[in-house]
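seq:
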Amino acid sequence: MDLKQTDLKVFKSLLLLILLCGILYQPAQASADELPPKNVLVLHSYHKGFAWTDEQGAGIEQTLKSAPGQPLIYSEYMDWKRYPGQENLEHFYQTIKLKYQSVHIDAIMTTDDAALSFAIKYRGEILDNAPIIFSGINELGVENLGKPGNITGVIEKISPARTLEMALEINPEIKNVYILYDNSESGLSTGQMVMEQISSLDPALHLYPLNRLSKQEIIDQVSALSSDSIVLMTTYYSDSTGRTVEFDQFSSELGERSSVPVYHIYDFGLNHGAFGGSLISGLIQGQTAAGLAVRILEGEQANQIPIVNNSSVRSVFDYNELQRFGVSVKKLPEGSEVINKPFSFYDTYKGLVLSIIAAFAVLVSFILILLFYVQLVKKIRSNLEKSNERFALATYGSDAVIWDLDMSNMVYYFSDSWYELLGYERDEVNEAHGGWRDLIHPEDGEEESRQRTNHLEGRTSYYYCEFRLRGKSGEYKWFQTRGKVLRNAEGRFVRFAGSMVDVTDRKGYESKLQMSYQELESTYEELTALQDELLEQYNKVVENQSLLQTSEEKYRQLAYNDVLSGLPNRLSLAEALELFIKENAGGHAALFFLDIDNFKYINDTLGHTFGDELLVKVGERLLQLGDERSRHFRFGGDEFVILFQDNRGFSEVIKYAETLVQGFKEPFELEASIVHISTSIGIAQYPENGVNAEELLKNADIAMYKAKEAGKGTYVVYGRDMQQHFDERMVIESHLRNAIANQELSLHYQPLVDTASAEIWGFEALIRWNSPALGFVSPLSFIKIAEDCRLIVPIGEWVLRTACRFIKELNSQSKGRYHISVNISVIQLMLEDFTDMVLGILKETGLAPQYLELEITESIFMESFEAISSKLEALKEKGIGIALDDFGTGYSSLSYLKQLPITTLKIDKSFIDSIDSPNNMSLARSIVTIGHDMGLNVTAEGVETPEQLAFLERTRCDKIQGYFISRPIPQKDVADWVKERRVG
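struct:
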């Protein structure tokens, strides 16, 4: 009996442990008093859809929307990156003033510099002087804030040092760092800061900025880098030509073409070619800044909250890029995050799987133990029942209660054990005369009477019942009662006797056993539910894998097809060419490179939406003109490429080219408008003009430019003489790159004379190049090459600085007021910092703006009218003259002329040469009259005879220049020429 009681106690302890494991903690939800909603105005510097801006905005909204007393959020976008002008600023000011004149602003949040400057300038006027919380401002920007007061925020700490340390840890052989940033205000600031920090970290590293290269030049350069190099990319919005670049697309192409890892500064480069690094997160910056805003909305003062520094950096690498460059994850710095790892159910849900297995094992163990003890309890109960029967008559000598009823007088007798168990004294409850029945538990009395009656009436062989009796202490005890009635010969009752055994402990065990059964059933149900949940999660994983495959297919479609026209894109073209060459080594094909003539003019005058629709129509026209042998691609911009396969000779190629030219003579119907366009086509044949994709594309492109030079709207087939011409250009370009450093360039100055006073008005600066290797090279030869390879940017800046310094010194020496006229290239004008460059040179040389005149050709305005006009208008307002050179040889539209920000018309030499003809004389006189009527000065070029001078004086032309006055004079001889003219 002792051993069984010990086992039952152990069983009791195990059941208690199960109950404790099943307890679930239900956290109480804190209640907070609802605050009235407050208004937060979020000002973004850039446009919606720009990755950096969207990430900061998402971080701000996530934090504010989860804050107590959720504030109302208003978001506005300045679009400063695409429209950084005063007109945009004024429009944005009027918009904010009108929209929020009846809204009380409790806090202003800004992203990046332009929005912060706007908020500081105007919050007192139109934004209730609300506190400002900034985000996306670097350390230099914060230093330039001054002390505006009531402001705090998060510094965008640009620190490439950690990224470089990580790169060196991965590849200790790194010696060259190519740094990519654009020429925007923020791009130049970021690039300068990055280069300074890297230089201070390791002076031995060679740094190469790429901001002066076009997009294609950057791609070409990084694709040929050696393994001891890396590329470090900051932000990038436009290349050195001023052409806007989609960051995601450019970053992806750069990462794909680069021969070395491309590290980034910002994490929005992830999944777009970024190898990795210590990346700034716009999302984290937005969340941190919003956290400061919540503190201010809850009552803290902005000036009392320190500016947060270096809180938004994550060390992360792209698994796909690691695989591409053969870098093991184990080589990454400790604590690095890795994205895009292949999906592994075990790795992803390792903790959950192990927890479920452990829980399942524990539950199975508990179930086995419970089953063991259930069998044990059953066995114990069986033994107890047998024991009760076996010792029924032996209870007289034990602690069992013996009872007896004399049926003749109905007097009860109970042994001493009864009184000991219940605590009563004899006759205390009148037990002898049935008073003991009053001690039976109310719930058990009916059952006891029924069992007694059944036995007395002979329906049972003995009396058996279990019931509870109340002791003197008030506690009930369970008794197992047995008895048998004795009858006489006549069948009458004589005596009714039996025993009562205290079974309170056993009843307790049975109760606990019942509870154990219930708990076991509940545990089984929970295990079943857990299995169902695990199965559901597995089904979701399978579903997610299917969605991922669908998404990858969609992205592949986007990667290989042009979104606008639906045609295959440049990537598809490269693969198609490589596949054709691989599978058709002995076949023939032709590559047609098409460029729409004057498309940029159409875009600028009719709008980009109109231009996009035209590109779609062009793609449709090309498909109509083709057949099953021609495959069409949109190469980019207004350029299309056709792969004409399996042609049967040169004549068939020419016939198809004629079909294309004729096909474009049919007008295009767009938005109820009729548009006439032409296309220039360059043709390269396979295998005659190239045996690989790169060579074919290059030669077709060269032929296309020859078609442009031939007058547009035609086609040219590539020939070897074109390659020779191209090689000659490369020689000139190679020597031209060192011309400034070797002091091979010089300026000659051709005088301009005022016809009314016959006094010298000034000089036009003309560049000359004396190469030690090539001799004297005509400007007509090298200027166009300099523009094509963008060397015109440093050359043009050198010319402007040299000419301004010269005229300043000449005026100081001669006490004159001479002007200087300098020719400007379209490449210079397209630079974002052109205006700042001109004004900077004037400040550097000390020349007053009114003594400088910039000469622009009509064709320059057609390149990008709006962007160029705004820059020249700003210079004109400073007092700088703007001359329209070669007037009459270009478009010469009067309505167009009225829109140009010019001060002078220069009549082309071709009109002056032929004024002996009455028609040309009348035309020249009309040009002078038109210029004067429009309030412009008129200058005639190429005056070589007295008759030409006399005619121009009669027409009151304002200024003249030409060989009749003087040939261009070397700089060292100008001062003597001026003295001689004065004496003469």
